[in-house]
Structures are given as C-alpha cells and as structure tokens.
Amino acid sequence: MGKVTGFLEYKREVEDYKPVEERLKNYEEFAVKMAKSRVENQGARCMDCGIPFCHSGCPLGNLIPDFNDKVYNGKWKEAAEILHATNNFPEFTGRLCPAPCEEACVLGINEDPVTIENIEKNIVEEAFKNGWITAKPPKSRTGKKVAVIGSGPAGLAAAQQLNRAGHSVTVYERDAKVGGLLRYGIPDFKMEKHIIDRRVEVMKEEGILFETNAHVGVNVDASVLKKEHDAVVLCGGATVRRGLPIQGADAKGVYQAMDFLKQNNKRVSGENFEEAEISAKGKRVIVIGGGDTGSDCIGTSNRHGAVSVTNFEILSKPTIERPEAQPWPFWPMRLRTSTSHKEGVERVFSISTKAFKKDIDGNLTGLVTCEVEWVKTPGKRPQLREVPNSEKHWDCDMVLLALGFTGSETTLVEQFGLETDMRTNIKAPETNYQTNVNNVFVAGDMRRGQSLIVWAISEGRQAAHHVDKYLMGKSDLPLKGDGDLPRI
Ligand SMILES: Cc1cc2nc3c(=O)[nH]c(=O)nc-3n(C[C@H](O)[C@H](O)[C@H](O)COP(=O)(O)OP(=O)(O)OC[C@H]3O[C@@H](n4cnc5c(N)ncnc54)[C@H](O)[C@@H]3O)c2cc1C
Ligand code: SF4
C-alpha cells in the first residue's frame, strides 16, 4: 500500500470536462487531462484492502490495488505492465466502462470510491505517450490457423491472445473498418477513433491479419473458412435491434438509433455512406430508451443542432443512492447521469409510447404516450400497468428508437449449424466457450447478449484460452484471476 493515510488526506477527484457550449461544437473528446501529481494522489487513496472487492467487481479481474500503488509511487511503466496483464485494451475501458469495480470498492462504503477508471486511462495514455506499448509478436508459430469473425472488443481481445500463443490469426470484419460498436456505435465524443487505430496498428505489427468488407456467410463462405482454419471464434455481437411495432411506426422520421449513430460515426470520420442523410438539425427529437445507446443519441442530436431533445424511459426513475435491495458491493440500479444528459435533455420516466402520428405525406408529427407503473406481487416479476387517463400527445419531428438488442443475427447461426438459447444468443458454456460445432467457439455479446466492453474483452480472453487448449492440448494463456506475467 502506497500511503497509509492517503484515503484520509485526499478527496476523490475526477477529470474536468470542457464547458457544454464548447464541446457541443464538435465531436471531440472533452475530458481535460489531469496533472500527473493529482492522479498519483488518487492512487494514494487506495487502501490495498485485505480482500480487494474491486477485483471481483471487475469482469477482467484487474489487479487494481497493485497498479494504484505503482501510480502513487510514480512507477507508471510498472503500473502499465500490471494493467495490461489482465486487460488488452485499457484505453477502451478507461474511457467507456461504467466501472463496476468502483461500485465494489471498499472505500465506497462510507466515502467516495477510488477513481479506478480514470487512473486506468491515465496509465495507458502515459504508456502510449512514452512508447512503452510496442508490438510483441510471438517467439515462434504453432502452424495452427484461427479465424476470428467480428472485430469488436471481443474479437480483438481473442485475436491478440491467440496470436500471443503463436497461432496465425485472421480477423474477418464485414464493415469497412475494424472496431465493431467501438467504431460504429459509440460516438467520437466518448472515444475518438484514432484510439482504436493506434491499437490495431500494434496488433498488425504483431502479425494479426485483418480482412475488412468480409461478411462471413455473405461474401465469405463460412464452410470454406471453417475448413481452412483449425478453429473459428465467433465474435459477431448481438446486433438485432428491438423495434416498436405500434401504430404509425412507419412514419418518416422514426429511425433506429443504430442507423443514426452509425451514419454519424461515418460522417465524422469522413467515410462514405449510401443511405439517405439522417439529421436532427432544427428538429424536436424524442429518444425512446434510457440506456447507453439512448444517451449517445442525445449527445449526437445536440451536436447536430436539435431544437429540443426528450428522452423516454419505461422504467421508473431510480434513486441517486443505492437501493436497499442492492447493497455494496453489488452493482446498483441507480440514477445515472451521463455527460450527454448534462448537455441538455428532458428525461421522462415511467412512460410508454402508444402510437406515432403522421401527416398526410407520412411525415412524423408527434406521438402519444401513457404513464405506466410497475406492480410488484410477491414471488412474481413486476408487471407493467398503464395508468388510466394518462394519455398525452407530444409534438416531435424525429424519433430515435434505442430499445436495446434482442440477440445475434441468424446468418452465422444457419451457416455453421449452431444451437442458440431462448434469447438467440449462441450456446456455449463458460467452461470452454465451445459451440455445438467441434472447432467453432463464441465470445462477447454473441454469447452473452448485449453487454459491456469490459465483458467483451473478458470473454475474448477466456475464449482464447480454451481455443488454445483445444488446439494444443494445454494453454499458458491466462484465465481470469490467474495473474499473468506482466506484458504490454
Ligand atoms: C450505441 C452503443 C453504445 C454503447 N456504449 C457502451 C459504453 O459506453 N460502455 C460499454 O461498456 N459498453 C457500451 N456498449 C456495449 C458495447 O459496445 C458492446 O457490449 C460491445 O461492443 C460488444 O463487443 P463484441 O465484440 O461482442 O461485439 P460488437 O462490438 O458488436 O462487434 C461485433 C462485430 O462483428 C461484426 N460481424 C457480425 N457478423 C459478422 C459476419 N457475419 N462477418 C463479419 N463480421 C461480422 C460486426 O460488424 C461487428 O464489427 C454500447 C453499445 C451501443 C450499441
Ligand atoms: S476495494 Fe478500493 S480501496 Fe480496496 S484495494 Fe480495491 S480500489 Fe483499493
């Protein structure tokens, strides 16, 4: 432990953000870098707990007290080695993770938790700045070939781990660029895309091949791919969007959130797109769905120049404090206010949309809602009930549906003959990540359903271990909680 009295001396400090009016002018990240000494003081707040609950809160099992201590002592390079021992891409999680580790931090019981996520981001940025992150190709090759399908965080993590084990890895991605939802879902103001490119360059130098515009099952034959590789790892995500099949859903002006976000990400990075322009400029926008996707739509709409942005959430408004039923160290369902929310939005909870209204030309003019309540009956799941006489009309010109995702697409499932569960996630047990087809494995959202980046990286790493073991009879690739040899 760095400083015994650190948590008593220093208060929690996080990065400042540029003022709203300034950041809304562009799509750049807007966090203001903290001075190194201030980050080191934050590392000093860590109590090096006998049982570090932060570890169990982190799906990667990050060695948090160890890197906090190194940061406090100014040993940034060692901190970077420890961090990379369990996380291939801390630059993604350090920016985008909701930080379950911080909700589990022991200091959080009666104080503000350690700023683990921001420390992580500062470590990895320091490492890139100083050139400590360099290609580490394997010393020898096994002669085994592995195909990874999908280049989101799960696919990238699986590919890097398998390459480290000496296998020849090719990542097949149907989009024009690598990154999955990191590139085409999440807006630049949360993570600029050169952050992905910088890491992918290192991976290419390590010997990983990337085939883009390669849609397996469409322009790449799945059976040929399976035959030509010793193992296949499916990391295609959970991309089937939930719709809202109500009256007027075909109105011009009702869009799926991912169509809006993907196009905007392409526009910001100068990529061509063929679809008609989707713009929130000058519009009264209603975003239906209160999760991460909804929040990204709010930030993007405000940057487009929307006249107003309103956000509907069907669930009731959570409390700011932990609910009693979700005590520390569990992940609590509490009210989260993102940086996009702070940029301007009216948030409405306990509301359900009943119909869209359109004019004679089919253009959206508004929608009709009702209030809802969740009725709890002991032993049963809460039931949604409409509040009588609560109907309301809202004028609007654009609606973005951010209602989540229902599971994985059918193309790969059919082509490989895979079994799925009730939610259309591809079936594979956590014990080996292997599907019902012998040399086909699955990881990330495609296995667990729409989740988090940190889980996708964790799944990619776990799956890589099992693929390596399948190919070689044993594996030195670490599993979660193994404690790997530090390597960047
Ligand atoms: C708008 C939005 C915002 C989010 N924000 C956050 C956040 O802030 N923090 C967080 O932790 N999580 C966030 N998430 C969730 C997170 O992005 C996902 O959980 C994570 O990206 C899943 O990683 P993955 O690798 O499993 O799949 P994905 O990232 O979905 O990648 C799958 C890839 O596979 C490719 N693919 C699919 N089928 C084929 C095929 N047949 N052939 C070739 N390629 C194929 C796809 O094109 C895609 O590139 C967000 C999700 C969305 C939609
Ligand atoms: S739980 Fe919090 S205080 Fe304890 S070791 Fe982890 S980060 Fe440090």
Mean pLDDT: 96
Strand content: 15-25%
The largest sheet, given as strand count, sense and whether it forms a barrel, is: 5 strands, parallel
Q: Which word captures the global form? A: globular
The strands making up the biggest β-sheet line up spatially as: 5-4-3-6-18
Distance between the termini: 23 Å
Structural Rg: 23 Å
Tally the helices: 18
Question: What is the count of β-strands?
Answer: 18
Bound molecules: flavin-adenine dinucleotide, iron/sulfur cluster
In brief:
By secondary structure, the chain is an alpha/beta fold.
Structural descriptors:
single chain, 488 residues, alpha/beta, five-stranded parallel β-sheet, 18 strands, 16% strand, globular, binds flavin-adenine dinucleotide, binds iron/sulfur cluster
Secondary-structure map:
Blueprint: H1 6-9, E1 16-17, H2 20-23, E2 31-32, H3 36-44, H4 53-57, H5 64-72, H6 76-86, H7 90-96, H8 100-104, H9 116-129, E3 145-149, H10 153-164, E4 168-172, H11 181-184, H12 194-205, E5 209-211, H13 222-228, E6 231-234, E7 240-241, E8 254-256, H14 257-268, E9 284-288, H15 292-304, E10 308-312, E11 346-348, E12 351-358, E13 364-375, E14 383-386, E15 392-395, E16 398-401, E17 405-407, H16 410-416, E18 440-442, H17 445-448, H18 453-472
Parallel strand pairs: 3-4, 3-6, 4-5, 6-18, 8-16, 9-10, 9-16, 10-11
Antiparallel strand pairs: 1-2, 7-17, 12-13, 13-14, 13-15
Helix pairs in contact: 3-5, 3-9, 5-6, 5-9, 6-9, 7-9, 10-18, 14-15
The protein binds flavin-adenine dinucleotide and iron/sulfur cluster.
